[in-house]
């Protein structure tokens, strides 16, 4: 049975990797076509467009592994059925459980790789990709200094501003404002939990603390709200925004903690956090979903039909996950339910189909 398990695993792995590379190249090609439309505008060169496409690939790796696992497993199993190898395996005593475990053994490393790509590759690559896009825009270059692990840094005259992160609605989190005099001596430090845009040139900081440095020493004042005049605009910050679904777990947790401390809504970030945890399991779910198609007879539509039908199911899984994420935010559903329901629903469907077909 070990030899049979290795053979099934090898066939599934080779097919999955082949499909994955094909999908990755296809998405990279689409990205390149889109970026070519911007080449030459505002000094945006071809080299930066190619760099942007390259930096977008880690995000595609994270997104495409479950789909590639589904189509690859379907292709491998359909090939075994077409060559009557699957029938020989079953008549030789190989149980459905043994075949399932052989496929799951391949899926576990793929699921781990998916988690690592989404946690350590995609988020920093996405931030770098956004920087590449805006480095040729003059206004931003004059205001934005750089993005580091500590957040975004801005310079306005003799004022330096550090913002830990920016929410999708352009709310600022973790604001630090350093004011210097003409001799480059620090004269004031303002720290605020968050900031919201009020109107052109004006932001409102919440839970602000100001430390003024003077000859007599330091003076600390606190305010629930503090108006901050700056040339910074929300349109400038949007180029640095990364969707919650593409953030790493520690960043999501920090955003949830800060927003919760300020009595702000955290459901989107909580759902994104649980999705990050459950998403790698989608690789295993997709591979198990492919197994029932091995029972279809050729007259039911052939290999091509089985692959097409399985791909549609994978698309439904993806859309259902997105739908429950949006519904969870709108209806204030429990984040764990919104993230886990699509996965457990498809697991139930796959197990039920296998049980029903096995009993026939």
Mean pLDDT: 83
The gross shape turns out to be elongated
Q: Note the main sheet.
A: 7 strands, antiparallel
Radius of gyration using CA atoms only:
26 Å
Which regions contain 5 or more consecutive residues with pLDDT less than 50? 137-146
Strand order of the largest sheet: 1-2-3-4-5-6-7
Q: Which class best fits the helix and strand makeup?
A: alpha+beta
Give the fraction of residues assigned to helices: 55-70%
State the total count of DSSP E strands: 7
Number of helices: 11
Give the CA-CA distance, first to last residue.
24 Å
Which band does the percent of strand residues land in? Answer: 15-25%
* Topology pattern, helix = H, strand = E: HHHHHEEEEEEEHHHHHH
């Amino acid at each position: 049975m070990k030899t049979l398990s290795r053979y099934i695993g090898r066939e599934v792995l080779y097919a999955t990797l082949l499909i994955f590379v094909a999908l990755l190249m296809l998405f990279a090609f689409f990205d390149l076509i889109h970026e070519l439309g911007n080449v030459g505008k505002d000094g945006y060169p071809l080299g930066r467009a190619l760099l942007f496409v390259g930096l977008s690939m880690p995000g595609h790796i994270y997104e495409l592994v479950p789909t590639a696992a589904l189509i690859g497993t379907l292709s491998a199993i359909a090939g075994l059925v077409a060559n009557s190898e699957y029938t020989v395996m079953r008549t030789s005593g190989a149980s459905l459980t043994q075949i399932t475990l052989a496929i799951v053994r391949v899926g576990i490393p793929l699921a781990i790789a998916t988690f690592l790509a989404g946690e350590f590759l995609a988020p920093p690559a996405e931030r770098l990709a956004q920087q590449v896009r805006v480095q040729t825009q003059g206004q931003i270059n004059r205001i934005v200094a750089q993005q580091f692990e500590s957040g975004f840094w801005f310079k306005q005259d003799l004022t330096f501003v550090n913002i830990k992160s920016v929410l999708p609605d352009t709310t600022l989190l973790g604001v630090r404002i350093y004011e210097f005099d003409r001799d480059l001596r620090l004269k004031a430090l303002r720290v605020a939990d968050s900031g919201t845009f009020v109107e052109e040139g004006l932001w409102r900081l919440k839970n602000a603390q100001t430390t003024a440095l003077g000859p007599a020493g330091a003076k600390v004042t606190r305010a629930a709200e503090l108006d901050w005049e700056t040339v910074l605009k929300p349109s400038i910050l949007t180029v640095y925004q990364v969707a919650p679904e593409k953030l790493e777990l520690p960043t999501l947790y920090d955003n949830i903690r800060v927003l919760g401390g300020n009595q702000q809504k955290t459901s989107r970030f909580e759902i994104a956090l649980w999705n990050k945890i459950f998403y790698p399991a989608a690789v295993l779910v997709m591979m198990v979903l492919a197994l029932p198609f091995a029972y279809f007879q050729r007259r039911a539509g052939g290999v091509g039909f089985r692959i097409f039908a399985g791909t549609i199911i994978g698309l439904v899984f993806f859309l259902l996950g997105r739908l429950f994420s949006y519904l969870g935010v709108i209806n204030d559903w429990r984040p764990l339910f919104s993230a886990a329901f699509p996965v457990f629903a498809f697991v139930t469907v796959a197990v039920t189909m296998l049980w029903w077909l096995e009993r026939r």
